[in-house]
Structure formats: C-alpha cells, structure tokens
## 1
Amino acid sequence: MNVAVPLIGLDWGTSSLRAYLYDVDGNVVATRQHAWGIRHLPEGSFSAALRAITTGWPPCTILAAGMVGSRQGWHEVPYVKVPADVTTIAKGMVRNDACARHDMWIAPGLLQDSPANVMRGEETQIIGALSQQPEHRANVRFVLPGTHSKWATVSDGRIAAFDTIMTGEIYALLMKHSILGASVSVEEPQPVPNEAFLRGLHSAKESAAEGAFSRLFSSRALMLSNQLAVDDVPEFLSGLLIGEEFRIALVRDGGDNSVPLCLIGDLSLCHRYAIAATYFGYAPPTIIGDAAAQGLWQLAATAGLLAQATTYDFLGLDA
Amino acid sequence: MNVAVPLIGLDWGTSSLRAYLYDVDGNVVATRQHAWGIRHLPEGSFSAALRAITTGWPPCTILAAGMVGSRQGWHEVPYVKVPADVTTIAKGMVRNDACARHDMWIAPGLLQDSPANVMRGEETQIIGALSQQPEHRANVRFVLPGTHSKWATVSDGRIAAFDTIMTGEIYALLMKHSILGASVSVEEPQPVPNEAFLRGLHSAKESAAEGAFSRLFSSRALMLSNQLAVDDVPEFLSGLLIGEEFRIALVRDGGDNSVPLCLIGDLSLCHRYAIAATYFGYAPPTIIGDAAAQGLWQLAATAGLLAQATTYDFLGLDA
C-alpha cells in the first residue's frame, strides 16, 4: 500500500526518542521508540540514532522537539519567550545543518523571564493537546507531571506563563539516597495510590503557607513512632510532593480552583494527579496520554514544512 | 597530675563519636574525636569503638547521647515526649547492659506527637546551651543547622516543641545527584557566602506562601538564561534552602520575628544562618559552637550519676 508521507516527527528528550511518520492528513501511520535520549545515544551519535530509528522510512522533512535543541543537544535552538502560541513557536524553529541526510528542523523551547523558567518539549505537547481540545484554547491549566512537572497557563490560545516543580526528581532522590527511603523495601509507589497517598495529600494541604518542605521529615518521624508503616513511606511521600504542587498552584491563584485542568503524560501518574486535583477541590481534569505527535504536526503545518510528500510503500510492518 | 574524674560523656551520632572526660567541677579535661559514627564503627562493634576512644581513661561512669540510643544504635532508648526539660530527659535515661566494662547510660531522644517529629542528640546540645545561657531559659528559639536542621522552642526552661527541616540533606542531594548540580564544578558553598547566597535568600523570601520548593528549578533556568553564573548555583541554592527555613519559621509565628534566636553548630554554617536571620528581620543570633559536653554533664548531674569519681593520673597528653 502506497502512502504519501510529508513528515517525520521526533520527540527527542533526555531519556527517550520517539519517531512518528505521518500521512498527508496528519495521521500517524507508524511510530517507533527507543531509549536513545540525548544522554543515551547509540555510538554517542545523534545521526546514528536518527538513521537507526528511521531505517526504511523515506527521507522526508523532519521536525524534532525536546532536549535535542538544548545546549547538550544536537543543535542549540534559542528559546522563544512567553507568551507564545503555535505561530511564534513555529517561527523560532531552526534548521539543523548538522543533519546531512534530511531537511531537519528543531523546535524551540520556551523561556519565561520572571520567575525564570524554561521548558523544552512540553510546549509541543501543549500545542498538540490544544489542537485536540480546541475548547481549552480560551482558558486552561495544562499539567505535565514527571521528573520536572510543568504547570502552564493557556489563555486566548497562547501559553501565557508556566512553572516547573521538581516533583519527580525530588521523589526519586529522597527514595534512593535520603534517610527517608532508608528502611523502605519498596521503592516505587503502588500502581494504584492507597490511603497513605491520601495522608500525604492531606499533610501537604494542611501545611498551608508553611509548605510541604517543612513536612518531609515527618514521614520518618511517623514511621519511627509507629504511625506509618515503613512500606507506606513511598505512598506518603508521593502524596506529599504531588499535593505540594496543588498547594502551590492554589496559592498562586489566590485559592481559586475553578480553572479547568488538563493532564498530559503517563496515565498512571496522571491518575494520581487527578485524585490530588479532586482532593484540592478542582473539577476532575481531562487526561491526555500523549500529544507530542499532534504538536509536531501542528508546528510543521504552521511553519509550512508539509509542502512535499514522498510516496512510501507502507507494508503495515510499522503499525 | 592527679585529677578526680567522675564521668565520661559521649556524643555519638550517625557519622562521628566524641568523648569528653570531666573533672568534678564539670570542666572537660580531655576530648577525643573519631569518625566512628554508628554507621562507621571499627570492626562493626560499639564496644570496640568505646574501648578505643577511652583507651587509658579510667573506667568511670559513662553517659552517651545521640543516635547510639536509636533503633540502629547500641541500645534503643524510648523517646521522651515534649514538653521536656533536663529532669524529664534525665528520667528517661536507660542503662546500657550490653556494655560490660562501664556503668554506661544512654540519654533518650525527644518525640513530638503532632506534627510528628523526633530528635536524638540535639536535646543534649540544647540542655547544654541553656546551662551556658541561663537568660535564654524563659523564651528562645534554638536553631541547630545541619543535615536535618532542628528548630526548637524553649519556654520556661522546657523544650516545648520542635521542627525538622531536611536542609543539609536536600542540599547535598541536589548538588550531587540532581540536574541542578549537573554543570557545576564547585560542589561546596564558599567559606564566606557571596551575593548569590543573598539572591537565594531573597528568592525564598519573595516566594511567600508558595515556598522555596516552587523555586528550586529557577536556579537552572537562571543559569540557562545567563542570569546566574554556573558556579554560583551552590551559593544560590544554599541561600534558597536556608532562607526557606526562616520563611517557614515566620509563617509558624505569624510573621513575628521578635523571638531571640540561638544558633548551635558548625561555626561557618552558623554564620550563614546568622546572615539569613538578619535578612529575615531577626536580631543577630547568639552563636554557640558546640554544647554537647555541657549538656551531657547537666544530664548526668541531674540523674545523680556523679557520685563516684576515679583518680586519673592526667599527664596532659589529651589536652
């Protein structure tokens, strides 16, 4: 079966590389994924990773987003300042001249001057989510949970401002390296959050203006005084740290929890955040598993990168 | 020269062991220190460590305080609940029957039910500091900076309540293992805090009810956007995290910074905290380098452990 393919999209982060092949309508006809994040490249080479992940695909235009455009990436792309929308982000794309085989472009990340903040890759997820959920263009808060959780405010179709909370990284550090994880035999939280998760949420909430940083040690004190089971410590800390994100958000918004939330990311993590959102009085959030493919397509379309399509003898092997 | 020595005091923590030999007036006539914390024992043996550090000293009564009385210590001593003073702490001492050579006692740590909190060793420092600074018995906040900073409220001569903030441990984790320390070539903060330290303090202060956890990532964003030199990141984080302790304290006290502060601990660290205290509007704190020896003596005297003194032919070798 022949398919006209105008674009390959790359979601190229620190720890993984995903590639999408699109038909002319923007449908993803093939997806590939490898652990070739920019710090884990095969042969230490960006072009080797790209060659390998696109093996057998036609040499069409490529658009990449994520840490591949950072200082440690293949080709540094200057940040675009917020407020930014699909047009301003598309204008900030840079051609990657180091890529000989393809007409390859890299999307910029976003920069916020004050409070100082940066993102790379999440802006593309948000653009993709907005294209899927146009009703959210007027006013929504996107939450992208993870190593560095992003909270982005969209109003009038533009990413107006954003915050970064190092929840996932701090959680992992505490469990792996700190006294809090010392006696704990389970390292990961349960697939489904339990009652200790809710206790953590509660602790973050009742910490009020003190904040959850003042409550971290309590997970050990509760354990030592037999008020918390040792193996519930990960759940408690998960609730405490995720709860802290919502506590901070509510402080910023003066206690207003009426803004609609949209979660983008790993579904089991989004599930935890949805529970936390409800606990903090928000309406149940919309959950989107992944929107990078749609975002790359929207950016490429806006930048006029879809003019040429190559015919690909698609055998369905990639499906 | 013969000296009558009634007591050996041990400050036995996680990473170090210090021993004090006293005369009958409570003067320390000899001090020894080794890196034999309870996790770094010679031959893995508490008695080997004790034997080695007291070599040549007479077999008099011993009082130990610190993690040696924890579940991972030599002999677990139940916590005493706050409010607690020198008398209630002395009553909570337990004889260490596992020590065959000496009449050895271990002081209890303190437990606070709500918010759940524990300390082991700091209570002895506080008792010692109160004996040095009797004017502080009425009303003072003791701050013991370190891996797990303790803030303890003393009123009417009793330790009424306390908090633990994991400042030192979080700082070390961030610098060693997180993205924030990634490009930084200096790991330790400067001996004297610089302007980046003040920027960190400022960031903690202006975070107001959001808290410094919401500002951690900004150290990277400022660095990436050339607003903070890479090698100033440790200073900035030091200021941000120490500032967070003061921000939390002020929230708890409803903004009242009139309580006198007394710092106990490593002098260069206390110097940082003194700068932070002033920045947050407190009067310059009293600084006490170490008060464990005095605390051990006070507890031993209160418990009636000083009845017998052994004559020691003190050659001044230990001075």
## 2
Amino acid sequence: MTDTIVTGAERAIETLKPLLGDRLVTSDAVRTHHSHDTSYMEPVLPDAVAFPKTEAEVQAIVKACAENDVPVIPYGIGSSMEGHTIPVRGGITIDTREMSQIVEILPEDGLAVVQSGVTRKRLNEELRATGLMFSVDPGADASLGGMASTRGSGTMAYRYGTMRDNVMALRAVTANADVVKTGSRARKSSTGYDLTHLFVGAEGTLGVITELTVRLHPIPEAISSAVCAFPDVGSAVQAVIMAVQYGIPMARVEFLDEVAIANVNNYSKTTMEVAPTLLFEFHGTPAWAEEQAKLVEQITQEFGGKDFQWSADADERAKLWQARHDLYWATKAMRPGCELFTADICVPISRLAEAILGAQQGIQGSFLQGQIIGHVGDGNYHVAYPIMPGNAEELAEAERLADKLVEHSLELGGTASGEHGIGVGKLKFLRAEHGDAAVEAMKAIKRALDPKGIMNPGKMGQEG
Amino acid sequence: MTDTIVTGAERAIETLKPLLGDRLVTSDAVRTHHSHDTSYMEPVLPDAVAFPKTEAEVQAIVKACAENDVPVIPYGIGSSMEGHTIPVRGGITIDTREMSQIVEILPEDGLAVVQSGVTRKRLNEELRATGLMFSVDPGADASLGGMASTRGSGTMAYRYGTMRDNVMALRAVTANADVVKTGSRARKSSTGYDLTHLFVGAEGTLGVITELTVRLHPIPEAISSAVCAFPDVGSAVQAVIMAVQYGIPMARVEFLDEVAIANVNNYSKTTMEVAPTLLFEFHGTPAWAEEQAKLVEQITQEFGGKDFQWSADADERAKLWQARHDLYWATKAMRPGCELFTADICVPISRLAEAILGAQQGIQGSFLQGQIIGHVGDGNYHVAYPIMPGNAEELAEAERLADKLVEHSLELGGTASGEHGIGVGKLKFLRAEHGDAAVEAMKAIKRALDPKGIMNPGKMGQEG
C-alpha cells in the first residue's frame, strides 16, 4: 500500500517538476517542517511540498495528485493546533505562502479580496490607509486560507464575528481540479446551496481555498479598555452574561483566572489583583464607547466586581493588551523549557461558569498546573497546561484533562472546539457531538466532492 | 411515468393513513391551496397534503415517500415568491402548520428553540416577557422553517443579519428518513462541516427542517426613526454607503422612490415630499440612538438630503413604519384589481445607485408602472409592477423586466436574489451566477443526500 502511494507521489512529482521548478521541494528539511503543526500529534513527512503562486498552479498540482491517487494537504503557516496539516497518509503538501497577493480592496463595499496565503497582519497593514480593519485575530499571524479552513476566531468574535461571519465568498480547487466559486460581493443572497460556509471549517478536506473575499469593519473612532477583578469565577461570568443580555456590543471581553493573572503580573510587571479577572475593550464614537464602559461598570458592580479600571488612553490600553498577548510567554516563563498544551472548549454562555468550575476541578485534581483564559462573550475558553517536551506522562495527563473538558462541554450542550478545529486530535468527538446521521451526511458530502478521498485524507469527512 | 408516480403516491397515502388520520388530506380544496405560492408560476396539485405534528411523523411520511419514489414538498405558510412550494412533480406536501411548538426559550443564551411551523410573529409574541426579540421580518408572517429554507431576511438584516446569521442549529429529516442534527447552543464552533448553513437556503431540496434554534436580540432601550428626502437616487444611496463606512449600526434603512412615496402619501394620508427617500430606524441606549441619528443627519446633509425629520416618539414611529408596511396595499390601491409582481435583486452596495438607475430606465421604457423600494443597507431592492391577473402581456412584460434586473445585477457582481430565493422562477440564473463548477458541486451534494431525488424535486440541486 505504502509502496503504491510512494510510486504515485513520484509520478505526480515528475509531472509537476517542469511547471514548478524549485517551488516543488523534496528536501528533508522542508518536508520535516511540513510534517507537523503546533500540536503533539505524531509527525508524518509529506512526499513533497509545493509552493504555487497561482490558482492555475494549484489546479495543476491537484490534477497530478488526482491522476496518481496522491493525497493533497493544504498548508497555511502551520499554526493549527490539532494536527490539521499533518500528511497522515503522505502526499503533496500545498504551502500557500507564495499565494500572497492582495487582489482588491473595496472600501465602499467593506470587502477585501485576497489570495489564501495572505496573513491577517499583512492584510491589516495593507488596509492602514482605508480606515478599515480585518477583525479576526487568532493568536498566530495565520494565513486567511488557514483561518477560514479551521473556522478560526480570536478575541473580537463576540462583536465582529468569526471566520464563519467574515468570509463572504471564496474560490477553491476541488478534487477534480475544478475551481468552485462561491458567494458574491453582495452582502446577502438567497441563491444556491451555501458553499461558502461548506468550505469554511472543512479543514482542507473538500478542496484547496485559493482566494477569499472577507468582510472589513471600520476602525472605530474611539477605543477604550477596562480591567475588573471578581471574587470568583461565577461572578465574573454572570457579569458577562448580563452585559450580553443588555446587548452591549463589547469589542473584547477576556477572562483570566488567578493563575493567568499571576503569570501576567510576573512577566509583564503589571500589578493586577490576583483574582478571576475580566479585560474589556469598547469600540464606538467617544461618547458611545464611554457609555458602554459605564454600563458594563454598573453591571460588574452588581456582581461584586472590584475597582473597575477604565482607560481611554492608547498607551495604557496597548500595555494591557500586550500583557494579555504575552500570556503565552508569561506562562512558559513560569516553567523554563516547557511547552503549552492548549485545550479549546466552547459552551452555551449560560453554562460557562459551570464549565470553567469543572475545568478548575480538573486542574486541582491533577499534578499539572493549568491556567484558564477565555473569550467569554462567546462562551469559549482555553486551558493551557505547561508540560515538558518528551515527558510522556505529562502529555498523557494533559490529554486526559483536555478530553474531560470536551466531554463536559458536550454534556452542557457545547462543542468540542470553539476555534481550533477537529484536525486529528478531536476526530474522536465528532460523532458524540453531531450524532450518527450528521456525520454520515458529512461523509456523503465528502465522497460526493472527493470520491477518491485525496483531499487531506484521514481527517474529517472520511474518519470520525 | 405519471401513472407510476400516482400509484406510488397512492401506496404512500395508504401507508400513512392509519398514522395521520384526518391530518392526511386529499380533498381538491386543500390540494388546490397547496398547488401554488404567491408567484405567477403554473400551479400543480400535490397528491396529498400531510399535517404532521411531530418530527417522528415527518420521518414516517418521508419513509413512506422514499419507499414509493414519491416527491416530498415541505410547505410553511405558502408565502414564497418564486414557486418554491409548487409540487412540480406531484407528491405529498408536508404542511408544517401543526408543528407549532415553542420548544424552549433560553434568555441567558439569547436563543429560542422552535418547531419549524412557528411563525415569526408568534415567536415574538411568546418572547414578550423576556425583553428579547427575533429580528428577521420578511413581509409575510412566515414560518421559521420556510424563512430558513429561503434564507429570508427583511428590513432589519443590515443590523441583525438574515436567516443565515440567525439560525444557530437545526434538525432536519433527510431523504433516508434520518434526523440530521446540526449546530449546537454554543455561539461558535470549529467542528464538522457546517450543515446548518447547508440546510439554510436549500429550499427543502435536502430535507425537511423540523426544528430550529434561532438567535434572539435584546429589545433596545430606545428606538427612534427618521425620514429624509433626496434630490436623486444617487445621493440617497451615497449617503447610505457613507453611513455604512462609518459603521453606524442602523437598525433599518429603507429606500422608497418617488412613485412609492406618492403611493404611500395617497393611501396612508402622509405628507412626505415626493422624492427619493430614506427611512431610518435607530436602536440603542437613548443617548446612543440619538447620536446615531445625528451622525446620519450630518451625512444626509452632505449628500443634499432635505429636512431630516427625526423622532423618538413611539406613535410617530409606528405611523411611519405602518405606512411603509402598507406600501403593498397602497400600491395595489393605485390600480384597482391588480396584483403585484415583485422582483428581488441584491448588488454590492457600491453598485446600488447604478443598479437602481438601471431599474428606473427599465420602468421608463415599459408600459408598466413600477416602483422601487429597497433594504439599501444590504444593497437589496425590489421593483414591484402592478399587473392585472390573467393579462398575459403584462405578465410577460413584468417577467422581461425582472429578468433584465437580474442580468444587470450579475453584471454588477450581485446576486439573482437577495431574499426571495430560486424556487422555479430563478432556476435559469443559477449557472450564470455561480458558474458550472459550483452548480455541479451543488448537484453532487444533492445526489449524495437524496440519491432518488425525492426532496422537492425539479428545483435547485437537481435542475438549473
């Protein structure tokens, strides 16, 4: 079996070499770089890595792979967290880094059209002169194709939506090497099956996204931020629920537990009270941003929030969010040499306090030190466990705790992943979350669009 | 062929009679009622109409139909406008009116779970005590299942989204009589193919939606409205574009052309200036709703808007929106005995002035009197032509004008339908809008989920 695939891959490489030249790479270094993502899943080498520049080149690669039954693995910057880009059955990895053209910026329509290798920071740099921003901000400076494929989000999803809400149209090369064009530049449409949303979140198993039309949002006139500590997790979450019920369009509302706050204080030299804490950001006109902050302050007081520290000062705000952003490094600094194992859960917001308390109990009952942070307006939270590389016992414990979190989330009516996706790591939960009929429908769709199963095989749509 | 289907239908009816009793109807009156929607498409009688109360009954109906190769046609209240519910190949129509249970209201999560026959007004009545509202408001008091199936919207979509944005989860009976469960109560998820969005807008061709979980929004503390007349269409649209670029979250922004304003004045005894006009609604805290209005007023002045009439008075606002709502009757009153033929178009907002001017030229070059109204924040507009029932020449002219509008929309990068859908009437545009590869992908998905083609056959996914 393996021999056949290798032979097929060799034939596909032979076919593609004249087209791609030195943008088709079989060196050990490059293949090793593309054998893993940021997860702890077993790495697997691709047979080759292609760096196409155009959609036509992507079509040629897929065609050569289809003709030779060779897997195709789309790859953005490799920042996925559940093994999405691991070529578990070998094949040719399509790295989209050279597909980095900003095709068109349409300020009047609030849209940008980009090749799928464009990263979110790059897009925002290009937008600087327009007064518009692209709002989806996962931790990494990921490619937009990768973010779309994992249905990614970040800290501003409560106000501005996830990739689900911000991808308006796309182009993708499917397994038969055709280009499927989805959506349009109109803000809404009632025509045809919603193929845009089918490709968003499909993790490259239905095709290779080559171009995206994404929604842009006006950069607000005023931005202010606030920090508020709470006596316990439940009070913090209740305050968020009420702010949501009031319809206050918080641009950011991030939860950090005591451990996270202590780590931040230590690393970023901040002096926040070591307690469950909410960090807020408000966007609007100066008056409206201030009013939102005042409304939220009143709500926090109702739930025992202490010393609501509001600031419209750009430097103070930058310092606060830099500290939040540096939490990754702050946590790593607490245990030199460690890596972070990060779990990702999303529950109905009404069950969030319960979910986080369950996570705390899990940490308390373990020999690992975990910390909890969350994009709590969405009911989404992460638990990060610092573990030592190569320590199988710690890895197994982190995996055990993460599995427990998912099981608890599903019991509470939540999902197995809020923003990291299924990849390889969460395949085992797909059926528990969606049920047999839905998973069989997914598999039927996968077979319909990719009968030979060459698009990112061994993952969603085929397994699970 | 017809004989075989009739025999199959008779067998299916025989099978279902003991289960459904008098909720399976074959009378001419009921079949005739379900032979058409509000469009001018040729009516076709179903073989029978079933009125299930439960999802299990829907499963039994689909099973009996599948076993006998009988078409299944989901039916809400029959308010669709492109022939969606016409049983073009006969079969059993599933009328969901008895599936009218509010399953659960979840104020903390801002969600309601309803059976698919619940109508939008009924849901809002049930929500009255909660301070929450369901925002999607097509003209008719449609069923939520029907609204989801046509990806419907209405006047508040710019601020609160369409059915695409407001259906968070659903249950549907597919052609094999399985129940597919999509989505969850979590606000976001990165797991699995997005089946929710696949069923939303599928017009009953992939399954019968039995239950929906929809998003609710807080009823704003303050609501105000405004009216502003403009020297021409282009100025009105440019004002809207700028308000959109400023990020002002207008709850409603409706355009009416001179003809529509004259009709409204005449019917509702209002005294608006007969000119291209924008009607606004603003939601928020009292201060923020007023600030939005002031910002919009400034913008309208930049574009020659005259006499921006703002009001926070509930009675005045009610009168204004009642007049807008009565436009249908106002237009019919101008030509006693007429019916309205309504075209539905949505273009990128940057091309909206161009699109509306094209529509005006079409009206000027025709013997029909048309009027233009639009949900212009979305780039969506309608042209209504009053035509006399049974007048083939007028119908042909209205169809010719409506086709021209779609062709122009597609040239401008828009869509063939903003909110009415494909049905039978717009099947011919599916390929022009989406391209061959996308339409073939849609057909492959349809075949995968409904290999015998029993779900609302002769429509999207099978034809076009």
